[in-house]
From TrEMBL:
The keyword DNA damage does not apply. The lineage of its organism: Bacteria, Pseudomonadati, Myxococcota, Myxococcia, Myxococcales. Signal peptide: none annotated. This is Glycosyltransferase RgtA/B/C/D-like domain-containing protein. Keywords: Membrane, Transmembrane, Transmembrane helix. The chain crosses the membrane at residues 56-81, 93-112, 147-171, 191-210, 262-286, 298-319, 325-344, 351-370.
Length: 498
C-alpha cells in the first residue's frame, strides 16, 4: 500500500515544481528555519503554526530546499498516517482486509490532495492518527502512559493546526471506549491519564492563542453562515468529496467541473451507492449483537466522523466555494474505520467487491484533478521549467526583486530560491514584511505575470507601466512574462507603491 500510495501520486511528484502558493510559504519558512530564523506562526498567518515548515526543514537538510523535498515532506506524513490507521485496523480485522480498508487513504478524491501533496496541515493530521494509535494500544503494558501520550499528541496536533480541533471529540470517544476494563478503577485511571496528557498538551496551544499576533476568527462557529454553507455543501463540496462531481484544472488554477464520460459517470454513481451502502451496513453491524467490542468501538468512531465533519462545515466561517471541500477531509480519513465493522462481518473478497466501486470512483476523481500533469492515463512532465529559466534570466540581468499577483509572488520566490525575491502587488497581502523592505531598497525590479495564475492581465500591467512613464523591457519565458522596470520602485504609481 505504501508503493501504491507513491505510484498513484507519481504525476504531481514528477512535476513537483508545479507547487502552489500556500505550500511555497511553508517551503520559504523552512529555508529561514535552517538559517536560524524561527517563528511559531506560519509566515503571515495568525492561526497556523510553523510545524509543517519545521518538518520540511528536516527534509531540506537531506534533499535540499527543492519543491520535490517539500512535496515529499507532506506525502510521507500521509503515508505514515495510512500505516498508523492500518496498525489500528489490523488489531480487529484480518491484515489483508485492513490493507483493503486503507486503500481509501491511498486512492483519494481531489480535496485530499491539498494536504497529502502540499503542506500545510498534513503534520497535524498525522499527529491525530498517532494519538489514535497510542490510545488504541491502551490495553498493552504501560497503558496509562500510552493514554497520556495519546492525549498529549492530540493537543499538539491542534497546536500544529487548529483544524485538528475537529478531531478532539473522536479522540475523546476513542479514549473512553478503548479504556474500558472490567476493573472500574483501571478504566478511570486510563481515562485520567489521557486527560492529564491533554492538560499538558493544551499548554503550548494556549500560549500560542494568547500571543499578540494570534487571531481566532478561523476557529469560531456561527449559525449565521449555515444557509450559505448548506448551499455550498449541497451544490459543490459534498458531491466533490463523494465523487459524483469532479473539479479539474484546465491549466493550473482554473478548476471547472469535469464532464465525465457516461461509463465513468456510471462508476461515480455506483461508487456513491457503494459508499452509502457500506456506511449503513457498518452502522447495522456496530449495534448488532455479537459484534466484538474492538470492532464496535473503532466503527463507532469512524461513523461519528461523518456527522461531526458535516456539522462543523455548516457552522464554519471559513467556507467560501468548492475549494472548501478540504474542510470535509476529516470524514474521508476515517472511512477505513467506518467501514471496519462491515469488513469484519464480510469475507475478505466480498468486502473488496463492496468497496471496489467507491475506490474506483475516488481514484478516477483524484487522478483527473492532477491535470495538467495527466491527460487520460498519460503522464506529462516538465511543466515547471519556465520558472527556473525565468529566474536565471532575471538574475543574469541583475534583477534582485520583483512584484507579482499574490498567487504568483511567494510561489516564484520559493522556486527562485529567493533570488529574486517577489512581493505581492498589494501591500495588505504581505506574508513576510522583510521581503517588502528589501524590495523598497532596490532601484530596478521586475513585474511578473503568470498567464494561468495571475488575476491581473498582462495588458493591464503594460498599460499602467506605460502611463507611469517608466522605462521597461519585456521578457517572455513560456507562460511567464516579466516587465523589467528601469526606475525606482517608488516612482511607478499604481504598481510598486501598492
Amino acid at each position: 500500500m505504501v508503493a501504491l500510495s507513491f505510484l498513484y501520486r507519481l504525476p504531481p511528484l514528477l512535476n513537483a515544481g508545479d507547487t502552489n502558493s500556500d505550500a511555497a510559504i511553508v517551503g520559504l519558512q523552512a529555508m529561514h528555519i535552517l538559517r536560524g530564523e524561527f517563528s511559531w506562526h506560519l509566515f503571515g498567518s495568525t492561526y497556523q503554526t510553523s510545524v509543517d515548515s519545521a518538518v520540511a526543514a528536516l527534509w531540506f537538510l537531506v534533499l535540499g530546499a527543492t519543491p520535490f523535498a517539500l512535496m515529499l515532506s507532506a506525502l510521507v506524513g500521509h503515508v505514515a498516517l495510512t500505516l498508523l490507521s492500518y496498525a489500528v485496523l489490523a488489531r480487529h480485522v484480518a491484515k489483508t482486509v485492513a490493507a483493503v480498508l486503507v486503500l481509501a487513504l491511498v486512492f483519494c478524491s481531489a480535496p485530499v490532495h491539498g494536504n497529502v501533496l502540499y503542506p500545510p496541515r498534513q503534520a497535524a493530521l498525522t499527529l491525530v492518527f498517532l494519538a489514535m494509535y497510542f490510545v488504541e494500544s491502551i490495553d498493552k503494558s504501560r497503558g496509562e502512559l500510552r493514554a497520556g501520550a495519546g492525549g498529549l499528541v492530540a493537543l499538539l496536533a491542534c497546536f500544529a493546526d487548529p483544524y485538528a480541533l475537529l478531531f478532539l471529540p473522536l479522540v475523546g470517544l476513542h479514549l473512553l471506549l478503548a479504556a474500558r476494563d472490567p476493573s472500574k478503577a483501571r478504566w478511570l485511571k486510563r481515562i485520567g491519564a489521557g486527560v492529564a496528557g491533554m492538560a499538558i498538551g493544551v499548554v503550548p496551544l494556549m500560549l500560542l492563542l494568547a500571543s499578540p499576533e494570534s487571531r481566532h476568527g478561523e476557529t469560531k462557529m456561527s449559525l449565521d453562515v449555515v444557509t450559505h454553507n448548506w448551499a455550498v455543501l449541497r451544490e459543490a463540496c459534498l458531491p466533490w468529496v463523494l465523487g459524483t462531481k469532479v473539479y479539474a484544472p484546465l491549466h493550473e488554477m482554473d478548476y471547472v467541473p469535469w464532464a465525465a464520460p457516461p461509463a465513468i459517470a456510471a462508476i461515480q454513481w455506483l461508487g456513491l451507492a457503494s459508499l452509502v451502502g457500506m456506511l449503513l451496513g457498518s452502522a447495522f453491524v456496530v449495534v448488532a449483537p455479537g459484534t466484538p467490542w474492538g470492532v464496535r468501538r473503532i466503527g463507532a468512531v469512524g461513523l461519528l466522523s461523518v456527522p461531526l465533519t458535516v456539522s462543523a462545515f455548516l457552522v464554519s466561517p471559513m467556507v467560501m466555494d468548492q475549494f472548501s471541500a478540504r474542510y470535509l477531509v476529516a470524514m474521508l480519513l476515517f472511512l477505513p474505520w467506518a467501514f471496519a465493522p462491515l469488513a469484519h462481518r464480510a469475507t475478505g473478497w466480498r468486502f473488496a467487491m463492496y468497496a471496489a466501486p467507491y475506490l474506483a470512483s475516488a481514484a478516477i476523481g483524484g487522478w483527473v484533478a492532477y491535470a495538467p500533469a495527466v491527460s487520460g492515463l498519460a503522464v506529462r512532465t516538465g511543466l515547471s521549467n519556465d520558472d527556473e529559466a525565468m529566474g536565471a534570466k532575471l538574475r543574469a540581468l541583475g534583477v534582485h526583486v520583483a512584484m507579482a499577483d499574490y498567487w504568483v509572488a511567494y510561489r516564484e520566490t520559493f522556486l527562485f530560491r529567493e533570488s529574486p525575491i517577489v512581493v505581492p502587488s498589494h501591500l495588505a497581502q504581505d506574508r513576510y514584511r522583510p521581503y517588502r523592505d528589501i524590495f523598497a531598497r532596490e532601484r530596478e525590479y521586475a513585474y511578473l505575470i503568470d498567464r494561468w495564475r495571475s488575476e491581473e492581465p498582462e495588458a493591464t500591467v503594460a498599460e499602467r507601466l506605460s502611463l507611469s512613464g517608466a522605462r521597461y523591457d519585456r521578457i517572455e519565458v513560456g507562460d511567464l512574462v516579466a516587465f523589467v522596470v528601469h526606475a525606482p520602485p517608488d516612482k511607478t504609481p499604481g504598481l510598486a507603491s501598492r
